[in-house]
Amino acid sequence: MIAAAKRWLRWPLTRFGGARPRFAAADGRPDIGFLADDSRHFDLFAEWLHAEWSAPRGESLEQRRTALRNQMRVDRLPVALIAYWEGSPAGIVSLRQSDLHTRAHVGPWLSALYVDKPFRGRGIGRDLIGATLSLAAWLGHREVWLFTTDRRSFYEELGWERMPPLPAELRQTPLPDVFRHAVSAGGGPAAGSGAPRPPA
Ligand SMILES: CC(C)(COP(=O)(O)OP(=O)(O)OC[C@H]1O[C@@H](n2cnc3c(N)ncnc32)[C@H](O)[C@@H]1OP(=O)(O)O)[C@@H](O)C(=O)NCCC(=O)NCCS
């Protein structure tokens, strides 16, 4: 009851009209919602993503902020989802139309999954992935793709199907491991959420 009240307060826009998918939340599980509905910790999320992926590529924090700002959407891609753990910002993930130039014809793609270090190992990454699949289903997609260069076992253990590499990918260093996950009507939107369809 208290958790439900906290959740109602945390995602203010979701309580009007309900034109959003709801992601299952329960005690001992992260609270997941749209960055578009809660930008209080926007700077922190941008800093995480910049440190993990942009800075090593020589990209600026401002570039990352611009990209993340573009993901403050709900019913069309790209979309960022965020996770809280007991009120603290804990993780983020994106669903975007494309992510790997060798596979421009498939999508959407789960991208930039990040769980802050103190919160790892609690199932937040797994729940963010589940929420992303629910979001993809809600948006009418049948499958979700991703690639990783160093987390192959993580996605294998979560039931993702590893796809054979394309010749162009075999020439890349490091080699991208490409995964696909089907999105079924039963896989999302979140069970029992009563989530409506987005506008056509
Ligand atoms: C990878 C990452 C998202 C995992 O987040 P997390 O919240 O710690 O993951 P979870 O707690 O949900 O773990 C889910 C399962 O995967 C396992 N797992 C977690 N990290 C793993 C890893 N690096 N390799 C293999 N398995 C892993 C967990 O043991 C758990 O298994 P279980 O369900 O049997 O207990 C997090 O470590 C992270 O943000 N890393 C830096 C960014 C990154 O690498 N992102 C992924 C890019 S492809």
Per CATH, which architecture? 3-Layer(aba) Sandwich
Query: What portion of residues belong to β-strands?
Result: 15-25%
Helix content: 25-40%
Write out the CATH superfamily name. Gcn5-related N-acetyltransferase (GNAT)
Largest sheet: 4 strands, antiparallel
Strand order of the largest sheet: 1-2-3-4
What would you call the structural class?
alpha+beta
Which segments are poorly predicted (pLDDT under 50) over 5 or more consecutive residues?
12-17, 187-200
The tally of domains stands at 1
CATH topology: Aminopeptidase
- Rounded to an integer, what's the Rg over CA atoms? 16 Å
Notes on the protein architecture:
There is one protein chain. The chain has 200 residues and is of the alpha+beta class. It has one domain (2-187): Aminopeptidase (3-Layer(aba) Sandwich), CATH 3.40.630.30. 28% of the residues lie in helices and 20% in strands. It contains 6 helices and 7 strands; from the N terminus they run H-E-H-H-E-E-E-H-E-H-E-H-E. It has helices spanning 2-10, 42-54, 61-69, 124-138, 152-157, 167-170; strands spanning 31-34, 79-85, 88-96, 109-115, 143-148, 161-162, 177-182. A 4-stranded antiparallel β-sheet has the order 1-2-3-4, with helices on both faces. Strands 5-7-6 form a 3-stranded antiparallel β-sheet. A hairpin with a 2-residue loop joins strand 2 (79-85) and strand 3 (88-96). The chain is globular. The N and C termini lie far apart (34 Å). Mean pLDDT is 87; it is low at 12-17 and 187-200. Coenzyme A binds next to strand 4, helix 4 and helix 5.
